[in-house]
Batch of 2 targets.
Target 1
Amino acid sequence: MDKILRTLISDGKVSAALADATSLVAKAVKLQGLSPVSAAVLGKVMTAAAVMAAELKSNGEKLYINVKGDGPAGGVYVTADSKLNLKGYIDEPALTLRLADGSPDVEGAIGKGRLTVVRDMGLKENYSGTCPIETGSIEEMFTAYHLYSEQQPTAMFLKVITAPADRAKNADGKTKTARAQTTDGKTKNAGETEDGQTASVVFAGGLVVKAMPDCDREGLARALEIMDKIASSDIPFGSGWLEQTAARYLPAAPSAEYAPVFRCGCNRRYMKRIALALGRDELEKILAEDGEVSVQCHYCNKNYTFTAEDFNKAERSKK
Ligand SMILES: [Zn+2]
C-alpha cells in the first residue's frame, strides 16, 4: 500500500514528507501502457502531486497540475484531491529518450515550458500559480513553484524505477496496443525491446523537505544533508524502503500519515459531455461515418461508445 509519512526534522524547523507512491504510479502506467521513460516522467510528477495533496487542508479541495514543456513528452496532467485520490496521464505514452548511461532522459523529454498548479478550494474562483520550467527537471520545477508561489524553500528527491514487464503480462496488453496505435497512427510492436513494452514499476517515491517559517539557513542545510543521505542510501528501492528509511534517517515520531491511491472516477455522463464538446456538426459527421462516437478516457484508457440515440436522449433531457 502506498504511504506518505510526514515528520519534522532539524529541531522542528523543517517539514519532511517521505513518500512511497509505487502502487498508484504502477496502476496509471499499466492502464495506459506506458514505456519505461514515459513511466519515469509521469511517476515523478504523480509522486510530487501526492505529497502536495497531503498538504491540502480543506475537505473537497482539489489540485490540477500541468507540466507543459516543448520536449517530446508533450503535456503531463495530474489531478489530486484532499482524500489523496490521484489520477494522471502523459501525452506521449511511448517515450524512448535515454541518457548515455541508459537512464530515462526525463529533462530532455519535458524540455522548457511551464508548470501550472490550479487549486480548487470550492470557492468562486480557483487559485492558480505558474512558474517557468527552465531545465525540464521535475524536482527543480516543483522546487521553484513552491518558492515562487508559497515563498517556502523546498527541496525534493524523486525516484522511479522500472523493470521490463515480463512476456506473460505483455501478451495480454490489449490496452497498450490500442493506445500505441491511436497516438501516432503507427502500430508499435510490443515485446521487442524494453522501450517497446509496458513498463513494470518497481518503485516510485521520494522525499520532499520544506522549510518552516522560522527555519534558518543552518536548519535547511541539515535537512538537505539528510536528503542526500537518503538519496544515496543502500536501502533498496522497493517495498519496505519507506519504513526502513524513516527508521534510519527520520527518527522523530511521524506527525501524520496518508494513503494515496489511484482513482480515475470517469463515467458515461462525464464522457458524454466531452463528446458533446466536439460540437454538433462534428458529432453528426462521425455518427454518419461510423454509426457511433467513441471517447477514450486519458487516465484509465476506458472506452465509452455513444450512438445517435444516446445524444438524442441527452438533448431531450435538457428540455
Ligand atoms: Zn477513466
Target 2
Amino acid sequence: MTKATHNGTCQCCGDTFAVNAKTGRLAKHGYRVMWNQEVGQCPGAYELPLEVDCSIAKRILADLHKAEAEYVALGGEDPRTAEKVHVGYWHSGREKYKRSSLLLMETRQGIKWLQEIVNNWTPSALLKRVGGAA
Ligand SMILES: [Zn+2]
C-alpha cells in the first residue's frame, strides 16, 4: 500500500483528508460507527479534491438551489411556520424533524459558502501531509 503524501479538501464537507497517491482521490470519511458497522458516508469521499476539481461542488450547489425552492414552497420564508419537514442526513444517516424556516436558513448559508468557492475556483497544489514522505 502506498502511503498518502498529501491532503486535499473535500468538495462536499470542506474538511481535509488524505489523498490516495495512486488514484488522486480522497480517503473515505464522514461515516460514524454504530453497532460495529459504518453508517453513512460523505458524498465527497473517493472523489477528486477541491484543489483539482470543482464539479461536485457545482452539483451540490445546484441541489441546494433546488432545496431552497422546496423550503420556500413549504412556507420557510415565515419563521413562525410550524410545519416540520422530515430530513435524512446523508452525513450521519440520522433522521430528524426540522422547521422549514430553519432549513431554508441553513440552505442559504450553504449556497453562499459554495457559490463563493465555485466562483473563485482555480486549480491549486495539494497540501503536504505532516510527516509524510516526499
Ligand atoms: Zn467530505
